[in-house]
Amino acid sequence: MSESTPRVSLSVESHYESIELVLVVLEDVMERLRVPEEDASALGAGVREAMANAILHGHREDAAKHVQVEFALLDGEIVVEIRDQGEGFDPEQISDPIAPENLLQLRGRGILLMKHFVDRVEFGSDASGTVVTLRKAVGVLTVGKRRNRRRRL
Amino acid sequence: MKIAMRHREGVTIIEPKGKITIGAGDIALRDTVQEALEAGADKILINMAETTTIDSSGIGELVAAYTTVTNRGGGLKLLHLPPKVHDILQITQLVQVFDVYEDEEEAVESFG
């Protein structure tokens, strides 16, 4: 995301409760942008998986580390970046969770679900950590509160 | 997340209400299944009707419960999947693994 792009930036501690906090903020922003509920719900599910990966795998549940989350509206896409302070990973090394021999594995489905819920998932890793970028095209209307507000995340 | 447990015709019915997600509902589900197993349950039906959200960690707990119960010679089945939960089981191909029912009586009878 460029420095000039209007965005929401959050820095949260590596607690799983932080996921809910970020989702509440995301939900509010989606409502103000009048993003259709189905799109907002799917994006929230993708963010939930990316944040869980950052806390569990990136930070190994070290609460002293922080997850940085930024989201912005860019050319009809909601773009969410989730950055951790972990050691990075190679997504190509993740086993296919729907291969028959992996169906009963306890973990390893987060990236599969992210890719289902949003249009594009990008990974970048360097010495400072991993950044996961989620992109989802949304039918954004004019800014304002949606009617019949309902929680969905 | 709250979890209720009841029994019907020898089947232990576990009813999670709310989110089964990492760090919260997933652990509660694990503990409840463990509690049922320690009480001797070998036929477990999880009623998902009031599960509002599930993530990959929650799915992992369902798989863990299924594997544990099956390895002990028992059975674990699912009841009343909300559409979003059903979608996730389809994406993860776990619809091939779990027996899923829409009718409690039929589900209970299926354990034999």
Rg measurement of chain A, Å: 16 Å
Helix-strand category of chain B: alpha/beta
The helix tally of chain A amounts to 3
Describe the main β-sheet of chain A briefly: 5 strands, antiparallel
Instruction: Output the strand order for the largest sheet of chain A.
Output: 1-2-3-5-4
Q: Helix fraction of chain A?
A: 25-40%
H and E string of chain B: EEHEEHEHEH
Mean pLDDT of chain B: 96
DSSP strand tally of chain A: 5
Residue runs with pLDDT of under 50 for 5 or more positions of chain A = none
Task: Kindly estimate the percentage of residues of chain A that lie in beta strands according to DSSP.
Answer: 15-25%
Give the end-to-end Cα distance of chain B, rounded to a whole number of Å.
31 Å
Give me some keywords for this one:
heterodimer, A: 153 residues, alpha+beta, 5-stranded antiparallel sheet, 3 helices, globular, B: 112 residues, alpha/beta, 6-stranded mixed sheet, 4 helices, 6 strands, 29% strand
3D architecture notes:
- The complex is a heterodimer of chains A (153) and B (112).
- With 153 residues, chain A is an alpha+beta fold.
- Chain A contains three helices and five strands.
- In chain A, strands 1-2-3-5-4 form a five-stranded antiparallel beta sheet, covered by helices on one side.
- In chain A, helix 2 runs antiparallel to helix 3 (110-117).
- Chain A is globular.
- Helix content of chain B is 41%, strand content 29%.
- In chain B, strands 1, 2, 3, 4, 5 and 6 form a six-stranded mixed beta sheet that branches.
- In chain B, a hairpin with a 2-residue loop joins strand 1 and strand 2 (11-20).
- Chain B is globular, with a radius of gyration of 13 Å.
- Chain B starts with a strand and ends with a helix.
- The model of chain B has no long low-confidence stretch (mean pLDDT 96).
- Chain A binds chain B through residues 15-17, 19, 45, 48-49, 52, 55-56, 97-98, 103-110, 112-113, 116, 153, and chain B through 21-24, 53, 55-57, 59-61, 63-64, 66-67, 88, 91-94, 96-97.
